[in-house]
Request: fold
Amino acid sequence: MGIIKEPKDVDFTVQSEPWTEEELKDFREIMKELKEKNSKRIIQTSISKKKVGA
Reply:
């Protein structure tokens, strides 16, 4: 994959709008669920590796 060059008269920067409280709440819930799911996966893989190596 190469570097994308901007044409001379075009600017690719984006103005982002601040999130609403509802969007932040939804995002935090999703992140919380993902962190819980991933922490369980890490614990299970480390336990299974210990059993195989023992």
